[in-house]
Write a structure and sequence with these properties.
Blueprint: H1 32-47, E1 69-77, E2 82-88, E3 94-101, H2 106-123, E4 134-139, E5 145-151, H3 158-165, H4 170-189, E6 192-193, E7 202-204, E8 210-212, E9 219-220, H5 241-244, H6 252-267, H7 279-287, H8 301-310, H9 321-324, H10 328-331
Antiparallel strand pairs: 1-2, 2-3, 3-5, 4-5, 6-9, 7-8
Amino acid sequence: MGTACCTNRSSVRVADVQNIPQHPKENRSIDSNQHELLRRQKSQLFQSEGADSTFIEISTPRTGKLIKWKRGDLIGEGAYAKVYQCLNIETGELFAVKHFTLSDDIKKIEREFYNMKKEVSLLRDLNHKNIIKYYQTELSEDLNCIDVMLEYIPGGSLKQILQKYHHLEETIIKSYGKQLLEGLGYLHANGIVHRDLKSANVLISTKGVVKLTDFGSSKKFEDLDEQLSKSLKGSPYWMAPEVVRREGHTFSADIWSFGCLLIEMFNGSPPWSNYSRNAKEVLRMISAPDNFPDIPEQCSNSLHDLICKCLKRNPLARPTAKEILNHEFFVTDENLHDNSSTGLIG
């Protein structure tokens, strides 16, 4: 119950970490002295008040009450964690649990814990219908894993929907796109750049409600005038040129990714994938001056124009999420597949 690292173990308060009895590790090559040293290093990492990676500040459940649960089937897997369905054993409600297994290398633990902590720190303060809801974070008794409980969306990801149905009609693209923009607009208004907007990170409920998820790459700008982020974050097909070229990026990078999602929803495959499936080659194409992904010729004039506006290579020329919501694609019923559009990307 509690943490899913082991159904016979419960989560613990950080203050109790030092009093927890040791448990044997799976890796028998680590002797008892190394094991104890590693355990002390973990304990220090998780308890250090004021440190960037402290566990204390994120360990309080959002609702104020710890949810008791047990783990079910694996429903997803990412670079740092596996996602499981889980059951609230008191109410029968279903949730999703993001399960981080910590390595035996303290440097890797620090990196893994930093990524998890950064995502939770963002999620716990967000409250929007198109953003995945966060509930609680738990540390296992043996300090080997961390579980982050989130809202469960049974419909799966946009990527899975496209794999099943290959492409979407413009009426659906309009519905999903509008909800994505509302979620992005909320993030941007709160100083957050998602930085990894792609079909795998867009969840769809059984009623067609869109939820943005996976904030492990996201960045919060405390001061919107601060220096632009120059780190290479995201997934190649959806990356903006300024991200690839490390020229500095902010909210407009998400708008480029949104334009790529529009192409993906219409075609059924991400932009650039018709040229290469090699990540380095895709990054090279994106970084090349005056290079753009192909825009579907069969889409309506308004969708074509919207994609063109999102894919301006100059970040300053791209509209904001709020401005895009007022674009004719979202405010009119024109979805005629007329390829006579003369919209140009610049």
